[in-house]
Amino acid sequence: xxxxxxxxxxxxxxxxxxxxxxxxxxxxxxxxxxxxxxxxxxxxxxxxxxxxxxxxxxxxxxxxxxxxxxxxxxxxxxxxxxxxxxxxxxxxxxxxxxxxxxxxxxxxxxxxxxxxxxxxxxxxxxxxxxxxxxxxxxxxxxxxxxxxxxxxxxxxxxxxxxxxxxxxxxxxxxxxxxxxxxxxxxxxxxxxxxxxxxxxxxxxxxxxxxxxxxxxxxxxxxxxxxxxxxxxxxxxxxxxxxxxxxxxxxxxxxxxxxxxxxxxxxxxxxxxxxxxxxxxxxxxxxxxxxxxxxxxxxxxxxxxxxxxxxxxxxxxxxxxxxxxxx
Amino acid sequence: xxxxxxxxxxxxxxxxxxxxxxxxxxxxxxxxxxxxxxxxxxxxxxxxxxxxxxxxxxxxxxxxxxxxxxxxxxxxxxxxxxxxxxxxxxxxxxxxxxxxxxxxxxxxxxxxxxxxxxxxxxxxxxxxxxxxxxxxxxxxxxxxxxxxxxxxxxxxxxxxxxxxxxxxxxxxxxxxxxxxxxxxxxxxxxxxxxxxxxxxxxxxxxxxxxxxxxxxxxxxxxxxxxxxxxxxxxxxxxxxxxxxxxxxxxxxxxxxxxxxxxxxxxxxxxxxxxxxxxxxxxxxxxxxxxxxxxxxxxxxxxxxxxxxxxxxxxxxxxxxxxxxxxxxxxxxxxxxxxxxxxxxxxxxxxxxxxxxxxxxxxxxxxxxxxxxxxxxxxxxxxxxxxxxxxxxxxxxxxxxxxxxxxxxxxxxxxxxxxxxxxxxxxxxxxxxxxxxxxxxxxxxxxxxxxxxxxxxxxxxxxxxxxxxxxxxxxxxxxxxxxxxxxxxxxxxxxxxxx
Lengths: 326, 498
Known about the structure:
The complex is a heterodimer of chains A (326) and B (498). Chain A has 326 residues and is mainly α.
């Protein structure tokens, strides 16, 4: 007891510190790292990761996890694009893709809330099913290109506004809206309450099951937005991304920023710090010509260090577990 | 009698904040020594230092004359000090014998030998526990026997019990006391953290009282009585305040009928339970654990899941109700204040004001979907003042508070929901003595304001002292009703166990 407030450093601060140190080291040792252009590109490269991470953080705060985000992102947007390329009206195509994402979110929510399957298994299975379903029924090719006819939609992922890349602005908007939802709405309060103590939330009169469904609808929505931003940034949607380690990177940035996997703790800020950290790291390593496999070693090591540092500074000893009874 | 343990000037600090300060404590060989004090007085810390769970910051501990500082519980155990924790440390999926020999497995584990050895051990202690039984199937008392057997097998010279009787029924408590006697007869020295004063007075040879981390008193229990101990615990005489004589108290008349439960059944826990609750008075329900009183309240308040709901009817103000989730009950004005606030009471990661406000939001009392922070602040200010919650400010985390203040926050979280019918399940469990009186006062005020209040308790003086009607629950149903004037401890207990 009494210690929660006093604990010297949170994981969030540690990670922020690590990001600053890394930034300084790269800035001194790599030519061209400390240019405005490079710094913007750091953020731009990870903005999609940040959007997905924000959604993941939201589901982890509610004591869940959504491993299907990458599949949902890839196939909902790929379907939208391929329908549009086959002369479906843009708005209808967007509606189809979004509807598909929501349907997956709804199924996830029902599986988890009403059939009581652990979130990690339910979404792992549904992610695989979505990938298979998408390949078989929705899109014919692995890569679906964006035609210029999408018009202004293009600007959510590419181009700049006042010198800032639009994908970064998209991240900022998603993060801002999510922050508002988490801290200023009834939904957000319910989510924190559920993640903190599901039974207490239920007894207090919070609609726990409908909330869980809403939570997975929201992560699916964010996945769809992330997919659109990606597609507009690189002018295509490569569905092979479902076979990549992207989903682990998404969890990485949420966890590294200090979102507690046990639920109820953390916020959007943690994700942004995690995103900056990973962005700096990836950019620096790429500029040093480090091979992709070696980068994975570094990412894994960094995650471990962050977790070890957290348990060192905020030990889960009898004090934290006994809570209030010295 | 010679001393087996002597602690001199022991201080334990958690990051600079002392949990116990300069405490002296001695344990004689073969004695039963009770440690008493309010929550947060430092009882657990003291025993944990002895058992090697934590280490002291200053001071010295002498065990059989040698200075010791155990780094781990295993080291303490090797020296002969065993601790039996409140949350028991058995492996539920294993058999009794496997648990007794846990941590002592050889590479080729001969189970047959273990069962025979365990049976002999149980026999020598006179414990009626089947070594083949799965621990998950045992009751609380038998689990405790297994833990004790484990400590005895490890040749413990000192056994420390952390609130051993908290989860036991009166019969099991009586049995536990006979176990203590048997251990004592074998020459084992015993320290136990007590929570009921009468029990400690009955079983202990000597009693030590701690207050705010400091040693207040150690004396032979023959020289002490309830009043002296309470005074030492809180620093002032409170027992009269808390348990005022019933004759001096006005008994509230029943108001309109609020809730009527008819033939409620659920499995074999609640059987054809029928009773009525009136507005403007406190209905006390006394019953032992397992008598179906908590489950009945939970069914009425929608907390118990409906699929276990087997039959019967519940009427609120004459209207038939049947809730699937607590949300519906909360919106109709029925709240259930839990007996276990850590598990279903408050939210650890939230501040006092967020906890209280969450109750308000969950009852659908906010307008629209957007939270108003000024509303949250006002609510928190009002309720922490009304309930006298002692905290630095309303942004403090609930986990930082004492048990009594946590309970007040949990109560406030339910009261902001504007209930008509309030179930308090063990409202003063794990609450420090000072706060008990305040909570009782608060419950009385609620009844005076016209709420229908139900207090479930397995502590007789509490039920007898605050209730305007006393219902006794036994074997899944209310079996007897007393007025406070006709109720005696004996009559109530008789109804509850027969």
